[in-house]
Amino acid sequence: MLIDVILPQLGESVAEGTISKWLVREGDVVAKDQPLVSIATDKADSDLPAPAAGRIAKLLVAEGQVVPVKAVLAQIDDAAQEGARPPLSAAPGAPVSLPPASSPHPASNASLPRGAMGALATPTVRKTALEHDVDLSGVQGTGDRGRVTRDDVLRAATSPGDAPPSPAAAPAAAPRTQQLAQLVNQGGGFVPPIPGVGFGAFKVPPYRPNDGDRVVPFTRRRRITADHMTYSKVTSPHVVTVAEVDLHAASKLRDAHKERYRTEGMSLTMLAFVVAATAHALRENLALNARVLDDAYVVLRDINLGVAVDSPDGLVVPVVRRADELGVRGIVRAIDDLAKRAKAGRITVDDLSGASFSVSNPGLKGNLFGGAIINQPNVGILRMGEIQKRVVVVTSADGEDHIAIHPVMYVALSYDHRIVDGVVANAFLWRVTEILEKAEFDV
User: Fold this and answer.
1) How many Å apart are CA 89 and CA 27, to the nearest integer?
2) pLDDT the model gives residue 44
3) Measured between alpha carbons, how far is 245 from 28 in angstroms, rounded to an integer?
4) CB count, 10 Å around CB of 235?
């Protein structure tokens, strides 16, 4: 019996993936859960395992092709034995010839699903349409539920004659600024500026090369990050509020236990205390543990904290799941594991999916404080500042004020003012500060 190898949903908001590399050939005998193909998505790269043991009967998609979620990538014959002879076309060293994936094209565009901004498409696909001057309203989607894919846009760009003719009374194709408004999913007539092009009467001056200049092309990861950050700033009305935290008690607690953690192969950092305090404060202020929908918002049950870490391909935000249930030790272990795998380039799509709130740490060479851009679809992100020793006023048990030198840090909360009010945001940040200053941790 032939078993389909299907591209699964590789994380929330992921609608398509790129076939980076086939790890098998037609005729190969594979075991269940053996990696078959490397898939690249907007989140991360990952290997797709075999759903069953058997022989690779057919590879249906070529390397480099973009395919939608739930597309059939290959077929496995589960009746094949280990000694099965591969077909001649898959002899060792011979290249595998793959036909382009065929997609059904409905005869009419009338039943094509439409969202509030027209055709169903991801921001990446909308950007591709913008770059190729393709009007998405005239593109027939072949993806899941009629979603327009990147291949649909490229076909429309190279074969304009295939697109259904527009009625004579229809308006001319939308200008690039209107298409960008679709890209960022904004309504109400709002037209944002086009990066690198301009807005209204203002135009970006062209670049003129000079001796010594070095043009650095965007990597795939940098392009994804740029698109994400631009989308977040245009979509969410950011508000930033800052609090000063006296870390005297937390630092003493860390100094008392860091050596014990080190002997166990873990690093007890101030980041772990901040993540633990954030998780605890979110449980008491769930309004910031949410995401915005089209005309509503969802208060999420699980507190899954995204923690920004560095990787060979740039900044990534892996997720510490149910952080409020872990305690400091569990958070330290989770952060250490995620950071090591990120630096080794072994982070997975699952590691990067499902964050309900984020914490950003600028590292040892940080600065006083900064307002971070919200990691969509979250409604808030907490950014740590640099820890510095400062003169502070402390009150003793008898009510007397004294001057002391304590480690102090500023923390900045960026929140989405569409659903988070200032009172709620300030109450959350006040609680984070209180937990850190009182060092209410079980280490």
Assistant:
1) 9
2) 65
3) 60
4) 19
Neighbours of 48 (CB within 10 A): 20
Q: How confident is the model at residue 190 (pLDDT cuts 50, 70, 90)?
A: low
pLDDT, residue 439, reads: 93
Confidence (pLDDT) at 63: 87
The 3 state secondary structure assigned to the chain is CEEEEECCCCCCCCCEEEEEEECCCCCCEECCCCEEEEEECCCCEEEEECCCCEEEEEECCCCCCEEECCCEEEEEECCCCCCCCCCHHHCCCCCCCCCCCCCCCCCCCCCCCEECCEECCCHHHHHHHHHCCCCHHHCCCCCHHHCCCHHHHHHHHHCHHHCCCCCCCCCCCCCHHHHHHHHCCCCCCCCCCECCCEECCEECCCCCCCCCCCCCCCCHHHHHHHHHHHHHHHHCCEEEEEEEEECHHHHHHHHHHHHHHHHCCCCCCHHHHHHHHHHHHHHHCHHHCEEECCCCEEECCCCCEEECEEECCEEECCEECCHHHCHHHHHHHHHHHHHHHHHCCCCCHHHHCCCCEEEECCCCCCCCCCCCCCCCCCCEEEEECCCEEEEEEEECCCCCEEEEEEEEEEEEEEEECCCCCHHHHHHHHHHHHHHHHHCCCCC
What does the radius of gyration of the chain's CA atoms come to, in whole angstroms? 26
Place of tokens 């074969």: 159
Q: Which pLDDT tens digit goes with each residue over 311-353?
A: 766 677 889 999 999 989 999 999 999 988 888 878 887 888 8
| Region for 192 from its dihedrals, namely left if φ exceeds 0, alpha if ψ lies in -120 to 50, beta otherwise | beta
Distance between CA 74 and CA 72 in Å, rounded? Answer: 6
Paired tokens of 138: 């005239």
CB-based contact 182:117 (threshold 8 Å): yes
Other residues' Cβ atoms within 10 Å of the Cβ of residue 103: 16
Residue 267: both structure tokens together = 């690093």
The pair of three-digit structure tokens given for residue 367, joined into one six-digit string: 């600065």
Q: Which residues are catalytic?
A: 417, 421
Cis peptide before 35 (omega within 30 of 0): no
CB 302 within 8 A of CB 391: no
Looking at residues 255-279, what average pLDDT do you find? 93
Q: What is the pLDDT of residues 34-68, one digit of tens each?
A: 989 988 776 567 788 889 899 999 999 988 888 88
The better pLDDT of the pair 148, 410 is held by: 410
